């Protein structure tokens, strides 16, 4: 029988009582025999509580009895916590004050009262025939994989390939009706894998290539504004939570205009057609053939969205179910035949539901015992057919600590991302993570808890945000399970009129009002309040006092705009977790905060103007984690920091920089007794005045749990003299050999400490701004080093030997002014086969090393012969910037990511392309030990018969001074190339003329500012995969290749600033996939190609050529055109009639076309600049759909404005600029109910008449929400 939460809590209470009674001070409160009575009562209850809990669901009386017991236990925990608080308070006060303080704290009567309540429960328990049950200790086998499961465990999706291909085929279908998008609904009950299938489709390479992907998790509340904000977040837009609907819509339109998008709305419950219509009307921004995939449990939801034939997802078959179970339960290990047969039966019982299979597989792998597996197979849960019953079995087998942790997660909203590090601190604040001894580490234990739940599929989708923060989600059914198993101490409040039980300890609020304050403040013992948004938290903090909630264990005041934190914060004696991060106005913390003797976590991240921490910080005796990152105004830490012996994590230590603080500021010596882990940055080391007095006892060398260390001095300049003090200081700050990451910045010493060579576990090393250090110590013993970065030195002439760094994956050399060579000597080949070097190196960046001449300093007779040059076998990314003298380096034939040469020589590339000699395979060139050390590398295998660079995907050549021509063999090898850019190559006159049949993968080709390039080769027309072709600033280019083309995939053609280009080829009209065509500043271009265009998909056309004599007739045939821009076509005398055929046109921009005198179409946006004949546009045009009108420098504007109130009723934005004669606006402006934005600039007469309150036209425009006049927001 697994241990229950209540069973564990009773045991903890008794253990704590026993410990407290054993303390000297405990005798003050215990009456003789009181503890014995309490022990007997607890023994009676504990013996049968497991059996009682097992029967609670079937017996209402038992259920009520257990609820009463839970309340007593909770009150007992609070009482013991108060007593513990008093003990902590005595530790930080003078000894003589103990009795005086404790006389006001009467614990005895309260203990007696709790014992009496327990006696009542024990008496009731005796009336039932409960069996005594014993907890089976969880004898777990060591599972080394569990530590890394959260990082390497892929999502298991079995047997969905056929379904995936079917959905992809639906994406290819033409849209029905006139809508921009089609909706595809995947329908199935919870746990069936709808989200996993949608994700398979979404991540498919072909789908990602065809659509702009957007993923939004909707869940039960279908809030249009929230969904739109999440769409923007998925598109990479930040800080949108405060945006209104109008702002969000505009930004979405900008992001999606003309783009074919795929929007996945995951887990939709809404069946209100009005809400769907409200949402869908705003999604008409993208290109036609856009698609929306919806996952839902309900066919009715699908019907609401107009889906007649939803895709009904079925369960896995028996073979697929068994396959999935075995992958989870055995994880690739040998399958015991007996366990395999049991697993097969269990998998079949799951009825093809992947979530059930994963959870049971995760449960059963914890205990690979035949008897235990049979108990699962024969469990009574199979009598119920619902998925939740199966999941409850997995929950029932959790140890009590994990049950508490899991139930707590019910407070998070469904489908929300949960930050792992934060969650662990929440668990700790609630007392779910208990340290058995001082040698244990909170983060390690929390990681173990988290990974255990992850391995059992209670968590899923662990992801990293790029800043080292890990996040996870809970499947919505798992969330339902968490809610169902949480006790009556948890409450989810959706309505302010709800009645909240007085026993509640944890509250999750969806709404907020002042009435809720009153309700919550009357409930004794609330430990947790979760708010759905920061807005509610902000309102809460402004309306209550902390003393009303003095049982809180955790309090989040992040981003509250707090300037002064009230002293009443000190009354929260139970508080363990306090987050004050991102309060930019807060200058000081109240000294009352040091009364929080239970506080374990204090987060002050990004309190930018915080000047100081409380002087009595040593009274925060329980503090385990202090975060002061990005508190830029802090000048020191207070003395007494070293007395915080519970402190396990201090992200930043600031050396005192103010003379007046010398007596009150902490020195580095205070780190002596602190057993710090994780990472620490020691900042402002230049402020150390006396190394011996301030730092000698810092004792970093003994901090074996410290993983990452950053040492920062104020950035020294190249002219600063070498500092012996810096050398002494660096020597003293030697870390423990367990260190994994080291960054040193601004170091001013002439020599680097020798201890660097002893950090044999180092994985990441960065040294930045070391302007006086000419040499670095040997690094060849750093066998684990994966990343090495050396930046900013004007004296470092050579590097220590790097050849033995077999695990090195990333090497960055930046701004090393004096560096001439990377290695001392050219390697002597040990055979006739070519030698690999740096067998694991994937990323190599060399930037701004102007003196770098080559890779090797000493030469031998073979150096310079391409046949003898070593090569990088695993390189994925190579960037060389501003190293014009680097002409020789190891070759890189296996480079498979991208290559950038900018302000560099072309010779390294030429040498690699000319390789013809045999190359030694990586496996043959390494010893078994070396192979083992680099086994984690993602190195691509490279065949000795493969052409050099045949795997290269992206190539950028920029400002290559010695590039005059690309030889014919230059591009022959690049069969995998998808992106090619030639930029700022002034001597380049021609591209290879030979047919390039190998560039079958090329998708983007750009030639920019190659001023002497005279022609483009004919083979460009044969690039069947090409999607974007850009030719810009090629001043000598006179013509583009002609003839028959095979550019069937081309979507974008951009030709600009080619003043000698006389004509565009006729094949442009036959680009059937073209979406965007832009032609600008081609001064010799007088005519566009003539004929009938076949680019029926063209959506955007931009033409800006001074000497263009006429716009082509074929413009009128572009029925898909949405965006038309005609700029500075000074010679074009007219705009042909018949533009009514442009049925898709939404935006027209006309700029400086003085001869333009014709029609427009029904538009959504019209921008015109410098068109004096604008008045003639108003004769026969339909403006009923116009939403944005932007007019600049158009003197004849009145006629158009006079039609606004009659026809342009949908107008949302009106912008008028540089119309000095304009004095009036339409009389019925107040009739434009959709108008949201009015902007007037450089119209002096109109501006004066529109001034707020005083202008004569103000009454006409007063109702418009946003009004700007000459850059001033007046409303």
Automatic annotation (TrEMBL):
<dbReference type="GO" id="GO:0005524">
    <property type="term" value="F:ATP binding"/>
</dbReference>
<dbReference type="InterPro" id="IPR042197">
    <property type="entry name" value="Apaf_helical"/>
</dbReference>
<dbReference type="InterPro" id="IPR041118">
    <property type="entry name" value="Rx_N"/>
</dbReference>
<feature type="domain" description="R13L1/DRL21-like LRR repeat region">
    <location>
        <begin position="668"/>
        <end position="792"/>
    </location>
</feature>
<feature type="domain" description="Disease resistance N-terminal">
    <location>
        <begin position="10"/>
        <end position="97"/>
    </location>
</feature>
<dbReference type="GO" id="GO:0043531">
    <property type="term" value="F:ADP binding"/>
</dbReference>
<keyword id="KW-0611">Plant defense</keyword>
<protein>
    <submittedName>
        <fullName>Disease resistance protein RGA4</fullName>
    </submittedName>
</protein>
<dbReference type="InterPro" id="IPR001611">
    <property type="entry name" value="Leu-rich_rpt"/>
</dbReference>
<dbReference type="InterPro" id="IPR027417">
    <property type="entry name" value="P-loop_NTPase"/>
</dbReference>
<dbReference type="InterPro" id="IPR036388">
    <property type="entry name" value="WH-like_DNA-bd_sf"/>
</dbReference>
<dbReference type="Pfam" id="PF00931">
    <property type="entry name" value="NB-ARC"/>
</dbReference>
<keyword id="KW-0547">Nucleotide-binding</keyword>
<feature type="domain" description="NB-ARC">
    <location>
        <begin position="161"/>
        <end position="332"/>
    </location>
</feature>
<dbReference type="InterPro" id="IPR002182">
    <property type="entry name" value="NB-ARC"/>
</dbReference>
<dbReference type="InterPro" id="IPR032675">
    <property type="entry name" value="LRR_dom_sf"/>
</dbReference>
<dbReference type="GO" id="GO:0051707">
    <property type="term" value="P:response to other organism"/>
</dbReference>
<dbReference type="InterPro" id="IPR058922">
    <property type="entry name" value="WHD_DRP"/>
</dbReference>
<feature type="domain" description="Disease resistance protein winged helix">
    <location>
        <begin position="411"/>
        <end position="482"/>
    </location>
</feature>
<dbReference type="InterPro" id="IPR056789">
    <property type="entry name" value="LRR_R13L1-DRL21"/>
</dbReference>
<dbReference type="Pfam" id="PF18052">
    <property type="entry name" value="Rx_N"/>
</dbReference>
<dbReference type="Pfam" id="PF25019">
    <property type="entry name" value="LRR_R13L1-DRL21"/>
</dbReference>
<keyword id="KW-0067">ATP-binding</keyword>
<dbReference type="Pfam" id="PF23559">
    <property type="entry name" value="WHD_DRP"/>
</dbReference>
<keyword id="KW-0433">Leucine-rich repeat</keyword>
<dbReference type="GO" id="GO:0006952">
    <property type="term" value="P:defense response"/>
</dbReference>
<dbReference type="Pfam" id="PF13855">
    <property type="entry name" value="LRR_8"/>
</dbReference>
<keyword id="KW-0677">Repeat</keyword>
């Amino acid at each position: 029988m697994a241990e229950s939460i209540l069973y564990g809590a009773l045991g903890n209470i008794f253990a704590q009582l026993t410990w407290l009674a054993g303390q000297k001070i405990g005798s003050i409160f215990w009456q003789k025999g009181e503890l014995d009575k309490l022990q007997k009562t607890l023994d009676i209850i504990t013996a049968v509580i497991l059996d009682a809990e097992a029967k609670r669901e079937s017996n209402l009386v038992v259920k009520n009895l257990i609820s009463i017991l839970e309340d007593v236990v909770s009150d007992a925990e609070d009482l013991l916590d108060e007593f513990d608080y008093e003990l902590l308070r005595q530790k930080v006060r003078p000894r003589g004050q103990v009795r005086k303080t404790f006389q006001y704290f009467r614990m005895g009567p309260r203990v007696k009262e709790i014992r009496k309540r327990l006696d009542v429960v024990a008496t009731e328990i005796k009336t039932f025939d409960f069996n005594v049950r014993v907890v089976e200790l969880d004898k777990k086998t060591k599972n080394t994989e569990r530590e890394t499961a959260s990082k390497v465990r892929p999502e298991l999706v079995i047997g969905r390939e056929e379904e995936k291909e079917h959905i992809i085929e639906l994406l290819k279908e033409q849209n029905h009706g006139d809508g921009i998008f089609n909706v595809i609904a995947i329908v199935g009950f919870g746990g069936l894998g709808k989200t996993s299938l949608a994700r398979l489709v979404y991540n498919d390479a072909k789908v990602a290539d065809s659509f702009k992907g957007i993923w939004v998790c909707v869940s039960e509340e279908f809030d249009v504004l929230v969904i739109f904000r999440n769409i923007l977040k998925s598109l990479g837009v930040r800080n949108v939570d405060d945006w209104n609907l109008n702002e969000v819509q505009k930004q979405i339109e900008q992001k999606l205009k003309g783009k074919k998008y795929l929007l996945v709305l995951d887990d939709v419950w809404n069946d209100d057609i009005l809400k769907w219509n409200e949402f869908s009307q705003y999604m008409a921004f993208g290109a036609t053939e856009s698609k929306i995939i919806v996952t839902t449990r309900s066919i009715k939801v699908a019907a609401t969205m107009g889906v007649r034939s939803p895709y009904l997802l079925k369960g896995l078959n028996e073979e697929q179910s068994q396959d999935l179970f075995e992958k989870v339960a055995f994880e690739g290990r040998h399958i015991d035949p007996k366990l395999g047969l049991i697993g097969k039966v269990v998998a079949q019982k799951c009825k093809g539901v992947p979530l059930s299979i994963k959870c049971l597989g995760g449960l059963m792998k914890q205990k690979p015992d035949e008897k235990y597996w049979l108990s699962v197979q024969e469990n009574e849960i199979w009598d119920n057919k619902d998925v939740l019953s199966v999941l409850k079995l997995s929950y029932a087998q959790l140890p009590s600590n994990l049950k508490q942790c899991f139930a707590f997660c019910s407070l998070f909203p469904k489908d929300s991302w949960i930050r792992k590090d934060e969650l662990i601190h929440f668990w700790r604040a609630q007392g779910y993570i208990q340290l058995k001894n001082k040698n244990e580490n909170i983060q390690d234990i929390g990681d173990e808890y988290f990974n255990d739940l992850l391995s059992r599929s209670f968590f899923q989708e662990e992801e990293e945000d790029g800043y080292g923060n890990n996040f996870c989600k809970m499947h919505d059914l798992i969330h339902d399970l968490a809610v169902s198993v949480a006790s009556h101490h948890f409450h989810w409040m959706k309505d302010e009129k709800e009645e909240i039980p007085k026993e509640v300890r944890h509250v999750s609020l969806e709404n907020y009002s002042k009435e809720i304050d009153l309700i919550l403040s009357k409930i004794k013992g609330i430990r947790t309040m979760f708010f759905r948004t920061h807005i509610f938290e902000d309102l809460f903090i402004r309306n209550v006092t902390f003393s009303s909630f003095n049982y809180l264990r955790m309090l989040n005041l992040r981003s509250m705009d707090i300037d002064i934190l009230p002293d009443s914060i000190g009354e929260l004696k139970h508080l363990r977790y306090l987050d004050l991060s991102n309060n930019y106005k807060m200058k000081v913390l109240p000294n009352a905060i040091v009364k929080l003797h239970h506080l374990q976590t204090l987060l002050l991240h990004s309190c930018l103007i915080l000047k100081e921490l409380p002087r009595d910080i040593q009274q925060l005796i329980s503090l385990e984690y202090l975060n002061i990152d990005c508190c830029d105004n802090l000048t020191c830490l207070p003395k007494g920091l070293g007395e915080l012996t519970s402190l396990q994590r201090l992200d930043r230590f600031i050396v005192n920089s103010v003379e007046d603080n010398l007596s009150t500021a902490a020195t580095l010596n205070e780190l002596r007794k602190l057993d710090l882990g994780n990472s620490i940055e020691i900042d402002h080391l230049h402020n150390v005045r006396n190394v011996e007095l301030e730092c000698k006892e810092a004792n970093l060398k003994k901090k074996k749990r410290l993983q990452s260390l950053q040492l920062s001095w104020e950035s020294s300049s190249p002219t600063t003299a070498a500092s012996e003090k810096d050398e002494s200081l660096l020597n003293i700050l030697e870390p423990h050999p367990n260190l994994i990451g080291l960054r040193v910045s601004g170091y001013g010493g002439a020599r680097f400490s020798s201890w660097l060579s002893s950090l044999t576990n180092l994985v990441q090393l960065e040294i930045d701004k070391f302007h006086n250090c000419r040499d670095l110590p040997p690094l060849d013993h750093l066998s684990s080093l994966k990343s090495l970065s050396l930046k900013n030195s004007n004296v470092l002439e050579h590097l220590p030997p790097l050849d033995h760094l077999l695990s090195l994956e990333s090497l960055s050399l930046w701004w090393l002014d004096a560096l001439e060579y990377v290695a001392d000597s050219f390697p002597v080949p040990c055979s006739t086969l070519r030698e690999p070097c740096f067998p694991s190196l994937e990323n190599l960046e060399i930037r701004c090393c102007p003196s770098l001449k080559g890779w090797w300093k000493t030469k031998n007779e073979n150096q310079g012969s391409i046949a003898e040059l070593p090569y990088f076998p695993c390189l994925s990314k190579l960037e060389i910037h501003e190293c014009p003298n680097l002409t020789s380096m190891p070759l890189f034939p296996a480079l498979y990511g991208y290559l950038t040469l900018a302000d560099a020589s072309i010779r390294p590339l030429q040498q690699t392309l000319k390789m013809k000699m045999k190359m030694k395979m990586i496996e043959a060139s390494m010893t078994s030990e070396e192979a083992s050390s680099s086994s984690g590398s993602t190195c691509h295998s490279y065949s000795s018969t493969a052409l050099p660079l045949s795997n290269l995907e992206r190539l950028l050549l920029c400002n290559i001074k010695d590039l005059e021509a690309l030889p014919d063999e230059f591009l022959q090898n690049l069969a995998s190339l998808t992106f090619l850019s030639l930029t700022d190559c002034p001597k380049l006159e021609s591209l290879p003329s030979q047919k390039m049949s190998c560039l079958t993968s090329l998708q983007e080709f750009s030639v920019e500012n190659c001023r002497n390039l005279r022609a483009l080769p004919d083979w460009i027309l044969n690039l069947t995969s090409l999607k974007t072709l850009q030719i810009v600033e090629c001043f000598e280019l006179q013509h583009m290749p002609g003839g028959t083309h095979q550019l069937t995939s081309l979507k974008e053609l951009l030709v600009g600033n080619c003043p000698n280009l006389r004509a565009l080829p006729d094949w442009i009209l036959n680009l059937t996939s073209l979406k965007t065509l832009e032609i600008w500043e081609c001064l010799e271009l007088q005519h566009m190609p003539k004929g009938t265009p076949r680019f029926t998909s063209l959506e955007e056309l931009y033409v800006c050529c001074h000497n263009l004599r006429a716009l082509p007739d074929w413009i009128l045939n572009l029925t898909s055109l949405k965006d038309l821009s005609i700029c500075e076509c000074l010679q074009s005398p007219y705009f042909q009639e018949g533009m009514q055929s442009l049925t898709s046109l939404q935006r027209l921009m006309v700029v400086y076309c003085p001869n333009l005198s014709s029609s427009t179409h029904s538009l959504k946006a019209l921008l015109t600049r410098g068109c004096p004949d604008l008045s003639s546009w108003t004769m026969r045009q339909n403006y009923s759909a116009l939403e944005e009108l932007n007019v600049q420098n158009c003197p004849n504007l009145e006629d158009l404005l006079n039609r606004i109130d009659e026809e342009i009723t949908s107008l949302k934005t009106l912008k008028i600029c540089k119309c000095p004669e304009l004095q009036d606006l339409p009389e019925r402006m107040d009739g434009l109910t959709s108008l949201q934005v009015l902007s007037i600039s450089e119209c002096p007469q109109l501006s004066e008449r529109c001034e707020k309150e005083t202008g004569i036209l103000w009454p006409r425009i007063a109702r418009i929400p946003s009004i700007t006049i000459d850059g001033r927001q007046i409303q």
